[in-house]
Amino acid sequence: MSETAKFNLYLPGLNNLQNENLNLVSADIRADKTTFNYYYIKGGVLELQKENTYNTFDFSSFSEMLSHFLNENKLEKPSKLSLGVPGPVINGKCLAERLPWALIGEEIKNESGVEAVYLINDMEATAYFMGNLTSHCLLPIYEHGGISDGNVAILSPGNGLGEAGMFWDGKYLRPFATEGGHSEFSPRTDVEVEFYQYLKAIYGIVSWESVLSKEGLFNIYRFLRDVKRHKEPEWLTAKIQQGEDFTEVICASAMEEKEMICKLTMETFIDFLAREANSLVLKLKATGGLIIGGDIPLSIKNYIDKEKFYKKFIISDKMESLLKDVNIYILLNDKTIAAGAAYYGAFHSN
User: Fold this and answer.
1) Is the dihedral of CA 83, 89, 94, 95 positive or negative?
2) Average pLDDT of 253-275?
3) Cα 312 to Cα 278: distance, rounded to the nearest angstrom
4) Rounded to an integer, what distance in angstroms lies between the CA atom of residue 56 and that of residue 64?
5) Per residue in 308-343, pLDDT tens?
6) How confident is the model at residue 2 (pLDDT cuts 50, 70, 90)?
7) Which one of 41, 84, 268, 303 has the minimum C-beta count within 10 Å?
């Protein structure tokens, strides 16, 4: 672990000489793209040797994509393989809905010939990234003194809504995955009830992922457009029809204050983000801090009104005293999954 790391993770294999001078491949596997990292482990440090990204659907299996990565770059077979996957890992298997094929640890081990194969949920991998996280990787939204002891919550809206935690055992933080993004969304105001009913007609069950994700951002926008009758400008209609990245278009327009519907979309999204952050911190009793990661917060970090977000975050029936001193940070790194999976594979055990 870096001497300047802000979070002290439980990594019992960090000083084990058997984990020295080995090659390791980690991967961040997503529906649209998969990123591979090839590392050399030396002195408890992961030295990045090669990185490549491929279109996930171009390959008939993960093992085929791994073989392509190694052969294309003339890399020797690694000693370890650690995969950050977009779904729950149960008994060494991940059957993620967004992926074109299943990920089964034993099959990958047999097909690749790699002796040590690890599957880890992508949000748990993000938590393991905290083992080498330094101050410059974090943008404070609210900071009350230094890093506090206690559990830590991680909330990451992007293609989906990722949620994870780190349990404080009295000495170390121990990462764990959750599927909290799929818990049901609940409205608070009359307008939110309308929004819920609008989404219920589309999805049946309305999860927080239907609100806090790239799809969720579009759901907020089209509710404001179709139900609340906010005007959609012609230039925005054209960009949507042309298939431009909706999140980038809305974020840019909101920050430039070009269109009211874009500002309302963004402000509503940020309000919901504060709400779910509040809920996750309370459920995990995360007095050690809240980390907000994912593609969307990284894109809108300069738009967020920190004071307003904090005031929304601490609203509670009886727990404002717990919430008001929780440190809140935005994670300024978009490569946490592959790097965190590598830390897990290299050092999580002896």
Assistant:
1) negative
2) 92
3) 9
4) 11
5) 999 999 999 999 999 999 999 999 988 899 999 999
6) very low
7) 303
Q: Strand, helix or coil at 67?
A: helix
* Contact (CB, 8 A) for 333 and 152: no
**Residues with Cβ within 8 Å of residue 299, at least 6 apart in sequence:** 247, 248, 251
Range 270-276 average pLDDT:
98
Amino acid present at 249: V
Tokens standing for 138? 């974090």
Alpha-carbon torsion (7, 8, 9, 13), positive or negative? positive
Place of tokens 């946490």: 336
Whether the CB-CB separation of 141 and 329 falls below 8 Å is answered with yes
How many angstroms separate the CA atoms of 176 and 124, rounded?
Answer: 5
Q: Quick one: pLDDT band at residue 147, thresholds 50, 70, 90? A: low
State whether residue 8 is helix, strand or coil: coil
Cβ neighbours for 244, distance < 8 A, ≥ 6 positions apart? none
Tokens of 14: 């960090």
Token output for 110:
């047999």
Cβ atoms < 10 Å from Cβ of 185: 22
CA distance 266 to 244: 18
Contact 94, 301 (CB under 8 A): no
Domains and CATH numbers, the chain: 17-129+335-347 (3.30.420.40), 148-326 (3.40.367.20)
Task: Give the pLDDT mean for 138-151.
Answer: 85
220 contacts 246 by C-beta, under 8 angstroms: no
One-letter amino acid identity for 47? E
- 265: helix, strand or coil: helix
Cα–Cα distance between 344 and 1 in angstroms, integer? 12
Backbone angles phi, psi at 77, to 5 degrees: -60, 130
Q: What pLDDT score does 132 carry?
A: 79
Distances (CA, A) of 197 to 204, 252, 263, 275, 290: 9, 29, 22, 19, 30
